[in-house]
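Dear support,

Our group has been running a series of protein-ligand predictions, and this particular one with zinc ion is the one our PI (initials K.S.) wants archived with full inputs and outputs. We had some confusion internally about which version of the output was final, so please treat the block below as the authoritative record. The input we submitted was:
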Amino acid sequence: MDGLPHLLDLHGALEPKGPGRSQQTLRTAIDCVGVGVHSGQRSRLTLRPAAAGSGIVFRRSDLGVDIPARFDHVVDTKLCTVLGLPGRRDAVVGTVEHVMAALSGMGISNCIVEVDGPEVPILDGSAAPFVFLIECAGILVQAAPERAIAIRRPIRVSQGDAFVELRPYAAAPALSITMSIAFADAAIGEQSLALRIASDSFRRELAAARTFGRAADVATLQAHGLALGGSLENAVVVDGANVLNPGGLRMAGEFVRHKMLDAVGDLALSGAPLLGRLVAHKSGHALNNRLLRALFADDANWAWVSGGTPASATSGLPLSEGSAGLPSLGSWQERRLPVAAAPV
Ligand SMILES: [Zn+2]
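Confirmed final output from the archive:
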């Protein structure tokens, strides 16, 4: 597929991306405490149930402000994805991508993500602790249909040899990702992975993959007052051919899996499940955000879809790319909404 080396083709779960085609939230609030990997600041994160139609919203409880979890509120992508409010330099929340990945991967449509500081706790560097919190709180199916965003035309952004591309995807109402990375460090090297994203495939294949860095880069960052909360407890650190963490890696391909996790989190800032195929090479937070801005810059690139394919009806669909042109949407019903309702 795509001529990528060492492609590990994981078909993943066969449930539809839209969670039963009804919106979902948490049954109850749940919280945890941890440090921010970049700020080193300790903060409390609380995931709260939210009303149907409200989406994912970050709440700075110490400032009393809400920040929509949307691509057009991304204010920085250098080291992590940072959300903010226009004209409020203090009203930011950093490192949103792992909790966003967990919420999206677990099919949560509506949630208030409350933080009492400027950065989401890094916890163990993966999305697994957030998945654990969601599962402990329980998932509530809401009496409102989920709607999703179907990709209608290929959209590509690139920088150097790095690129990310969204394509229409005919085979199933889902997001599938084909991801490849290439690092000089022999401990990472070249890795590729293809996966259809659904809650059990996300939990099984991606959630536990930790963020990673190179030892030399970590030292430089910390000398500049960054990555202050970073440690071998919350990141994989590599030095050439060596993984410095005493326990080694959690799984084969942990690096490309984490990049895919980041992409799930960043793309969740579209505000609704994406139905399409993402192909990415050496992508990062900046390209992921540019991709969403390019997607929503033209209404012809995408369409709202809603409807109800029972979960069982989509089982057994192969992971394959559709032919050119408009995606076949199964029983998702294509429906254009007024421009004012579009996520721009
Ligand atoms: Zn990450």
